[in-house]
Predict the 3D structure of the following.
Amino acid sequence: MKTEYKIFAGVAAFLFAAATVYGIWTNGASGGVEWIGTVALILSGLLCSMCGGFFWFVSRRIDLRPEDREDGEIADGAGEIGFFSPGSYWPFGLALSASIAGLGLVFWMWWLIALGLILVITSACGLLFEYYSGTRHPAEH
């Protein structure tokens, strides 16, 4: 996780520097700071800082991964990474549901927003519980 937090910290530093330069540049060019772009760059920098802070916090609590070590080899990261569903349709349903909710937001149709959000929640639950087989899984009859 050290690699990730360094990347996010670097991007955040760039965004804060760009916000400073942008604010100074627009102040001299038009007689006043262009606030929309300046605030957008600052908020983007804060978002990257938040992600970088999370990765930094997690990196202190876990062991070093092969990509975090200076002497790490490619072969050290070989093996099973995790389980990824080979043929799930839920991501498509989730994207379609988010598109419906977004379309409702664009045209400000409250009923389409509500329908899209209900579909987003349903598809997210379907994706989450697709392979659920825990101790509380209902017994099959």
